[in-house]
Structure formats: C-alpha cells, structure tokens
Amino acid sequence: xxxxxxxxxxxxxxxxxxxxxxxxxxxxxIIEQNKRxxxxxxxxxxxxxxxxxxxxxxxxxxxxxxxxxLFSADEKSYESITQDIPSFHIFEREFYEQFGIKPLxxxxxxxxxxxxxxxxxxDMKGEEVHQVAVGPIHAGVIEPGHFRFMCxxxxxxxLEIMLGxxxxxxxxxxxKRPSNQLAESICGDSVIAYNTAYSQVMxxxxxxxxxDKAKLIxxxxxxxxxxxxxxxxxxxIAGDIAxxxxxxxxxxxxxxxxxxxxxxxxxxxxxxxxxxxxxNFDISEDEITSTLKTLDKVGKDVDRMTQTxxxxxxxxxxxxxxxxxxxxxxxxxxxxxxxxxxSGVDLDSRFDFPDKWMHELGFEKKYFKGVGDVNSRFKLRxxxxxxxxxxxxxxxxxxxxxxxxxxLTSTDNxxxxxxxxxxxxxxWRGEVVHIAMTDSEGRLSKxxxxxxxxxxxxxxxxxxxxxxxxxxxxxxxxxxxxxxxNDL
Amino acid sequence: xxxxxxxxxxxLFVPFLMTGVIKKTKTFWQGKKGPSVLQPLYDFIRLMKKxxxxxxxxxxVFRIAPIVSIVTVLFAAMLVPLASGxxxxxxxxxxxxxxxxLGLGKFVALISAMDTGxxxxxxxxxxxxxxxTTVEPAFFVTIASIxxxxxxxxxxxxxxxxxxxxxxxxxxxVFASVVxxxxxxxxxxxxxxxxxxxxxxxxxxxxxxxxxxxxxDLALFSWANAIKMLLISxxxxxxxxxxxxxxxxxxxxxxxxxxxxxxxIGTVESCMARIRMSHVFEFIFVMSSLALVVLSxxxxxxxxx
Lengths: 488, 305
Fold this sequence. Notes:
The complex is a heterodimer of chains A (488) and B (305).
Chain A: E1 5-7, E2 12-14, E3 20-21, H1 23-33, E4 36-44, E5 50-58, E6 63-71, E7 77-79, H2 89-99, E8 102-104, E9 129-134, E10 146-152, E11 155-162, H3 170-176, H4 180-185, H5 191-206, H6 212-240, H7 244-265, E12 274-275, E13 278-279, H8 285-311, H9 313-319, H10 327-333, H11 337-342, H12 349-352, H13 356-360, H14 374-399, E14 419-426, E15 431-438, E16 444-450, H15 452-463, H16 472-479, H17 483-487
Parallel strand pairs in A: 3-6, 7-8
Antiparallel strand pairs in A: 1-6, 2-14, 4-5, 5-6, 9-10, 10-11, 12-13, 14-15, 15-16
Chain B: H1 2-29, H2 39-49, H3 60-79, H4 94-115, H5 119-150, H6 156-159, H7 161-165, H8 169-187, H9 206-209, H10 215-240, H11 247-271, H12 280-303
C-alpha cells in the first residue's frame, strides 16, 4: 500500500483513498519524506479511536501529500516526530492538547491554547537573571498574550510566549454553522485571505466552478489587503522606533487603500465582499479608473517614505541586525510566509500552488535575499507592496475584459460525501490553510484552520534572544503575528 | 520687582507652552494640524481635577514622590536666572544646590517607581538612574568651567560670558549650548533618548516610571518634567542673550530662544529615530566630550597667553 496520496490545492479527495497506516510506519514515512507539515491534526474516529491526519507540502512540485494513522482506544502515546524534524513541534503540542495522545520525548511539550494554569515556564537560575512578565493585557491596543522574558539587565536570554486567551472554539463553530461571516471574523487583519480559503473549500466540496471575473476580484482584493497591511506595518515599525514622520505618512497611505476597499465592498477590510460561489460586489469601470489613480499615489508615497527611512542612519541603526532569525533556524523550526521569506526561505504559496491566473497574467516569483533581521522584514514589506500594487494594476486591467460575466454562481449542490479538501491561500502574513472533511451524510465533520502565526510565534521567541529587551516591541511589530489566528 | 513677577509667571506657564510647541512642531513635520499649543495646560488642569488610584503594594514613598518632585524642581528653578538674567533668589554655590536638589527629586522619583514593585518600573528606574549619572559629570564640567571664568560661583556668571571669556566667548557659548541641548533631550525624556509618545512598556524610560501615577500625581510629574526642560533652556538663553540691553527686550529675546529651542527639540524628534538603548551612552558621551572641550577652552583662556 502506498504511504501517501498526492493531491493538489483546492481538489477534492475521497476519505477512503487516504492511506491509514500504523503510527510507527507513518512516523518513519514522514521522516523519510522530510517535507514541510501544513496539517497535523486528529479526529475522533468513534469507539475511542483517534485518527491522525498528516498533510505535507511539496512546494517544489506544487503537490500535497496526505496520509493518516489510526490510534486505538488504548494507544495513548507515540514516539514524537519533533525529535527528528523540529518543525513538527507546535503541531504535536496541539495534537496532544486536543486528544491526550502523548508524543514521547517531545522537547517542549507545553500547552498551546488551553490549560494555561499548568504552563511551566522555563526557569533560569542566577543572581543576575531577572524575569519580566508582560501581559496578557497590554498598554497598547493589541490582542492579549502573555510574554515572559528571562533577562540579564537589558539583555534577553529567552522569551516564552503563552497564548490562548483568544480561544473561541472557531473550528467547532465552523462545524455547527459554517458561514462567510464566521470565516472572515476569525482573524480581523486577514479577512480576504480567510474568506477566500473558506469559500474555496466550500466551492470544492459543492463542486461549484466560479466565474473568472469573481476569481479576479478575489485576487485583487487579496493583494489590496496585503498592500494595506504591509504599509500599516511599515508605519508601525517606524512608530516603534519613534520615527513619527514615517508612522504618519504610512498611516495616511494605508488609509487610501482601505478606503478604496470601502468603495468596492462597503467595508474597509473587505468584509462581505467574498461569498461562496463568487463575490458580492462588482467593480465598475469608474471604480477601476479611480483605483488605478489611487494606486499611483500610494506607490509614489510609499517609495518616497521608504527611501527617506532607508537613508536615515538613526533608523537603519535600529533596524539592522535586530531580531535576527538565520536561514537555518527558519528552515529548522518551519517558519512560513513573511517571516520565512525575510530569512531567505523561498516560500510563497501563490507561486508554489498557482492557479491559472498567475501564469496568464505573467506574475513571477522573485526571490528575496533576506538575512532575517528587522531590516529584512522591513524591506520585504516594501518589495511585497510594490509587487502587490503592480499585480492589482494588471488584474484590474484584465477585469475590463470580463464586463458581462456574472460575479456570483449559485447552486444548491449538496456537500460531497466522505470528502477531504485542502485549500491554501497566501494571506499577507503567509499561507492560510483550511482543511475540511465531510461525513457519509455530506455534513462537515472536521474543519481545521492553520494560520501562519501558528508556525511563526516560536520564530519571534528565537528572534529576540540576545537582543535588548527594549527592542522586543520592534521585533514583535516586524513579525506582527496574529493572536486570534493562532488561538482560534 | 516687576521682573520677579514676570519670571514667576514664566516659570509657571512657559513649561506648558514649551511642550505645546514641541508637539505642534512634531505634528507640522507629520503633515497634521495638531492640538493647540495650550493643550498641555488643559491636560494639566483636567488631570488636577481627577482622583487618583493607588496600588496597595505601594508605601508612603509613592505618595510623596510627586510632591517632592515638583517642589525640588521649583526650588531649583528659583536658583536659575530666567528672563533678563535674574534668578528669583540668589544664593552662592547655586550650582551644587541646583544639581543636587534636582538629584533629590530624581532619587525620590526612582524609589517611587521601584516602590510599585512592577518589573517595568524597575527597569525604567534603572535606565533613568544610569543615564542621569552619565549626564551629571558633563553638566558639572560645563557649568563649573564657565563659572570658573568669572571666579564667582553663581549662575550670574553665565550672563556675562563674553565679558569674562573675551575672544573665547563665542566658542564657549556654542559648545556649552550644545552640551545643554543634549542634556534637555536626556533629562526631558525626548527622542532620541526616550520616546514620550510611546505606549510600549518595555521601551519606555520616564513614562514607565510614572506608569502607576494617575490624576494630580501624574499632572505634577509631567509639569515637573516640563519645568526641567525650561530650566536648562534658560541656561542656554542666558548664555546667548547679550547683557546690557533693556529688560523688556531681554525678556522677549529670552522667550524667543526658549521657543526656538522647543522647535529644535520637535524637529530633532521628527527627523530622528530613537537610539537603541545600548547606544544611548555613545550619544551622552558626545555631550561629555564637548564638556571637556569647554573645559579646555576655559583653561586656555585662564592660563594661556
């Protein structure tokens, strides 16, 4: 029997086709494959049994590998995979937390979202070591999360991040009442990415093919979201180093983009724009013209401010060599998305799992030669904004050719039975992965969400090691990870 | 006598205007309209009317700190010549009393921050203590050198630099002004040393020390900080403004220098990012080296040919 079944992004798979191995075989096979995990989750399989599904991404070929293992009722532990492939650490912790099946010899088996009272903080002894505890409630308007620094004076030895305060049980809610409204509320800064991923899952399960126009509008919105948030983050980085001019200019520029989204969809963050079957709002010819004009202004402003900042020695001395995550480390712990790209890892699911438009519109993946410090993440944002703006221009020009196409395809198709679908969307932060499963009656039986933050929080902890504690906010802002996307 | 009241009014109200002008300058650089220059005064009045919350881990130190802080700063302010080169009270050895009265206020603020038991405030206090101790020698060397020129150890000697220093006067004034300007940035908790606008507990210095203070306590601390900036600006103003002009022109010149300094502070804050915490000392050492330049100029003047 084959150990893995190959599938593609947004492709339906029959549950019965997924191999079911013993955990020791699966473990060996995972280590043999040595690929990036994007899904590793359990599902209650009746009679006290638990089935563990594993999805690996083959980024070079655009394939997804799926396999599973069945744990009988009395199998309560297995040899952890993390010891051999560290990037599984957070996935195994989550699996343990949800199903109580213990990965043996896991080096860092701490709670992910629940049981915060039992969280055992890393302990350092020594007269000069002091701990600084921050949060879960912070002075700024940000989400809750607890950070604990082990410091020597101003120097950080180690940072522990305890999350879970935003846990709302989203994955369970999704089974009870799946809706676009729910999907876009999971992570407020990635509305389009989450809603696209959800809609694609539902469309694949229902067998709906949406119109080209709707696809283009979704794509444009996704890039708008990326540009808006990246510009906002550049402003936030400027604000953190007290460079108020940068904070002000980027703040104004971001507003131009989100106000354009407001014109498109009635919501500055694009809420309500995307629906299963297509999109709810068309972009008229006038809106295209005015958007293109706005984008020109945005492009110019971002260029000017970024150049001003990169020429300012005081700014550069703050950004350079702060919060570095090396390429090797990034690979090892399995960073994804922006954080990985900034360390020089070549990962972008828009290009690794492309749809036909990427080729047709002539978008090319450009490697970013980053060294993993705050400066790299700052420059990467600049690069992504420029790319996004040029992509939006091309998409909008293409959109003019599809004047009379419908934007919403509605069908009453039932969900496919016993199906398994993986949908990957590259949000601004990185890959947003939604995986859905249906039962024999065509009802959703499992909905699994993976935000890029889930992989990347540990990267932040590594980044601040041996940095000044006063540089933490800057490092944190340069990653800008999501609490709600992680806590679900 | 009338100058006494003019100076008293300056001492009480100009600090608010200074902060207002700094904020206005910053908003100008950001392309915003910004609040009125009187906003810090309105804030002060608003805070004075408010009640305060006091953590039950604190002791009496926390209660008396704001008052000690404002009293010491006001007392120090009386020793310094303000408009038209006149101090409110004149006592010999003003420099030592001035520096250590301010030191006392700072010390009480530090222990009050530590009194709260918060790890942030401890960090803020240690940073503040660290920077203050590095600033102090430079301040002493600069001012004492200038005083040595006149042989009269009161602040009056600042007013007559040119008379005492002759050809060296301009050089001494320029270098000493830069030293004092950097001191304003450090003592006034301005960018590039500290960021008065931040809300990030881990990077703050002055702001984190007063994190637990609210209502009138907070108002007094902010006011004291603003007065401190005015004091050091006054030292600069008195060095620059020539003596022997009519009192009222002197007052006008004094006010313009103070507001030009505020605009400069605002501009520095807008065009510079904050220095990395571990590099702040390098910035302060610029000040120390300039202080030594002042000292050598004075030595050259006194013992040279």
